[in-house]
C-alpha cells in the first residue's frame, strides 16, 4: 500500500507514525505480524488458519506488500510439492516489538471493559 505524497512533505510522510502506518495500515497487517511472531516460519495455509476471517486474496496481497516493505520474508523451497514459508525479517521483529506497548494498552482497555472516563 503506497501513501500518496502530501504537500509539504518531500517523501510523502508527515511524521514517523505516518511512515509506520504505511507499512501496518489495514485491518490484517498487525495481526499477520502477531501471527508470525507467535508462530514463526509458517506456510500460507497455516497463517490463514491462525487468522480466522481473512480471505486468501487479502492474505496473499498483504504478504506481498509486507515482503516488499521488508518486514516479511518469503522462502520458497525447491521441493515437490512446492513449499513456501513466511517469517519476520529483522525489521519485522523490530516493528512487532514497537507495537507491543500498543498491544498492552489494548489488553488493559479490554480487561477494564472499554474506555475510561
Q: What would a concise description of this structure say?
A:
The chain is mainly α. Helix content is 52%, strand content 10%. The protein has one domain (16-104): Orthogonal Bundle (Arc Repressor Mutant, subunit A).
Word description of this protein:
With 117 residues, this protein is mainly α. It has one domain: Orthogonal Bundle (Arc Repressor Mutant, subunit A), CATH 1.10.10. It has 5 helices and 2 strands. The chain has a two-stranded antiparallel ribbon with strand order 1-2. The chain is globular.
Topology:
Blueprint: H1 16-24, H2 29-38, H3 44-50, H4 56-68, E1 72-77, E2 83-88, H5 90-111
Antiparallel strand pairs: 1-2
Considering the chains and any ligands shown, give keywords for the structure:
117 residues; mainly alpha; Arc Repressor Mutant, subunit A; two-stranded antiparallel sheet; 5 helices
- Integer-rounded radius of gyration: 16 Å
* Share of residues in helices: 40-55%
Number of alpha- plus pi-helical segments: 5
- Highest CATH level, the class: Mainly Alpha
* Overall tally of domains: 1
CATH fold type:
Arc Repressor Mutant, subunit A
Strand arrangement across the biggest beta sheet: 1-2
Helix-strand sequence: HHHHEEH
Q: What would the principal axes of the Cα set say about the shape?
A: globular
- Which second-level CATH architecture applies? Orthogonal Bundle
How does the helix and strand content classify structurally? mainly alpha
Low-confidence segments, ≥5 residues, pLDDT <50?
none
Number of beta-strand segments: 2
Largest sheet: 2 strands, antiparallel
Distance between the termini: 36 Å
Q: How would you name the CATH homologous superfamily?
A: Winged helix-like DNA-binding domain superfamily/Winged helix DNA-binding domain
Percent of residues in beta strands?
Answer: 5-15%
- Mean pLDDT value: 87
